[in-house]
């Protein structure tokens, strides 16, 4: 979620048929959401949400390892395994309840010694880090499945502290070189 900017429902609905480890791509074509407290598999939020993303090498490796681990869980479960085809499942192959994902994220944050964040905050973090590291806003916006770059910049892009510091000196130098009085 953090490295690709996926929504919670996109991650929970992700199927192995949509992951191409050899080609290093992931297709967002299904979501898992709660409707009236019950799981619902459906289409992504918008047309632009249906997208193909390139997998960074580290994510491809993690998914490859996860696939092997899931195959092991399948062998252990035997006839009790539910063949949902999903990438992220319970130990018996069923879908993960969205609230369980939230609990896991909070446990991981606690272990890491950081304050818990909302799952959706990972999308904001992706956008901010990507743009901060030179990814054009238009590219980050498309990767997030947004139709408007302005929406990505207004709602998802947060200026990071190091960016303020990184641009303070060049501006000071610029003012000094032109002999413009400092305010």
Question: Can you characterise this structure?
Answer:
Helices cover 47% and strands 11% of the residues. The chain contains seven helices and five strands, in the order H-E-E-E-E-E-H-H-H-H-H-H. The protein has helices at residues 8-12, 57-77, 98-112, 121-132, 137-144, 149-156, 161-177; strands spanning 19-20, 25-28, 31-35, 38-42, 51-54. The strands form two sheets. A three-stranded antiparallel sheet has the order 1-2-5, with no helix packed on it. The protein starts with 7 loop residues before the first helix and ends in a 6-residue tail after the last helix. The model has no long low-confidence stretch (mean pLDDT 89).
The 3D shape can be described as elongated
What is the terminal-to-terminal distance? Answer: 43 Å
Radius of gyration, whole Å: 20 Å
User: Unreliable segments (pLDDT under 50, ≥5 consecutive)?
Assistant: none
- Provide the helix percentage: 40-55%
Record field, number of beta strands: 5
Mean pLDDT: 89
Helix-strand category: mainly alpha
Proportion of residues in extended strands: 5-15%
Strand arrangement in the largest pleated sheet: 1-2-5
Largest beta sheet, briefly?
A: 3 strands, antiparallel
What is the ordering of alpha helices and beta strands? HEEEEEHHHHHH
Tally of separate helices:
7
Brief summary:
With 183 residues, the chain is mainly alpha-helical. The chain contains seven helices and five strands, in the order H-E-E-E-E-E-H-H-H-H-H-H.
Element layout with pairings:
Elements: H1 8-12, E1 19-20, E2 25-28, E3 31-35, E4 38-42, E5 51-54, H2 57-77, H3 98-112, H4 121-132, H5 137-144, H6 149-156, H7 161-177
Antiparallel strand pairs: 1-2, 2-5, 3-4
């Amino acid at each position: 979620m953090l490295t690709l900017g996926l929504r919670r429902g996109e991650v929970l609905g992700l199927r192995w048929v949509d992951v191409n480890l050899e080609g290093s791509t992931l297709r967002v074509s299904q979501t898992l959401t709660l409707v009236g407290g019950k799981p619902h598999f459906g289409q992504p939020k918008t047309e632009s949400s249906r997208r193909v993303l390139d997998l960074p090498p580290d994510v491809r490796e993690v998914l490859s390892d996860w696939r092997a681990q899931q195959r092991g869980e399948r062998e252990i479960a035997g006839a009790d395994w539910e063949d949902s085809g999903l990438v992220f499942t319970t130990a018996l192959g069923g879908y993960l309840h969205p609230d369980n994902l939230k609990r896991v994220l909070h446990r991981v944050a606690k272990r890491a010694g950081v304050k818990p964040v909302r799952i959706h905050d990972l999308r904001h973090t992706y956008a901010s880090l990507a743009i901060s590291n030179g990814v054009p806003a238009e590219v980050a916006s498309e990767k997030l499945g947004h139709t408007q770059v302005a929406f990505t910049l207004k709602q998802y892009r947060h200026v990071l502290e190091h960016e303020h510091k990184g641009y303070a000196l060049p501006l000071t130098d610029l003012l000094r070189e032109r002999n413009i009085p400092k305010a």
